[in-house]
Specification:
The chain is of the alpha+beta class and 171 residues long. It is built from 7 helices and 4 strands. Helix 1 runs antiparallel to helix 3 and helix 4 crosses helix 7.
Amino acid sequence: MNSSDTIPFIAYLNYVFIDKLAQNDVFKSGETEIAKQFGISGYFYNNEAETISRLYCLLVVPKEVWGSNQKYAELLGTIDESNTLNLFSFVRRRKNDLKYTLRSLRNAISHAHFISEENGFTFWDVDTKEVEHFRVFISHQNLNSLIADIGIKFAQLSAKIIVEKNANLET
């Protein structure tokens, strides 16, 4: 599994692995040690930067690697539209569908159009005339649910890609 096709899946595995390690007291003491080393207080691994990194790997990278091809469409087709849209508090949007929402969220992440707030994140996207057409708030808890859901879908899709590649190698 060293292909760009599987980077989102591998990134998700890394997050699951590190999140599991983060439960360990040695990991927690490492967080404290790093905070002291850099003269900061209250550092913890699962922070805003980590969240944005996760979203980048799960939303931006696949679109750049796969483009608008069948794999990306297949991924979108596996995500429950109603439940996913309910994770967001929409302030502004032109369309009420999952494809538009994830595309606008992906654009917001890739252009750093987001604000980290105490209870979550606000993301926004603008059109080619710099007119804002999308603004959404999502709580930390709902964002973690979104990341987990998309990550699991990538796990399933990546397994399928690997099986297809292995089958092609055998022929």
